Here is the input.
Amino acid sequence: VQNAKTKEMPRSILMQGHKFTEADQMMQKVFEETPTEDWEWSQNMVADSTQVSMDALDSVNSVSGYVYSFPLPNKPSEALDGNWFGPDHHHLSKNGHEVVAKG
Here is the structure.
């Protein structure tokens, strides 16, 4: 996701070399300080996600595995307000795992 106003992407926190516990706290703060209606899907993220899915599918198929896709609602607020993520906002909550399992 990205902030609709600033175009900043919280995911970039994960690439800044922080310890996981620090990154988790930073992600939590970003999402707590920004109302859910201010988030939008980044078009680059959607395109990258599609390519990663295709690459992953090829790998998984080669070992007869399964892929469970994360449903992409029209707006990120549906996932954020629907409690799909844990407190760090980048790991799925129990509810988020159920959403993915149901497809």
About this structure: The chain is about 45% helix and 5% strand. The mean pLDDT is 82. The longest strand covers residues 2-3. The beta strands are 2-3, 39-40.
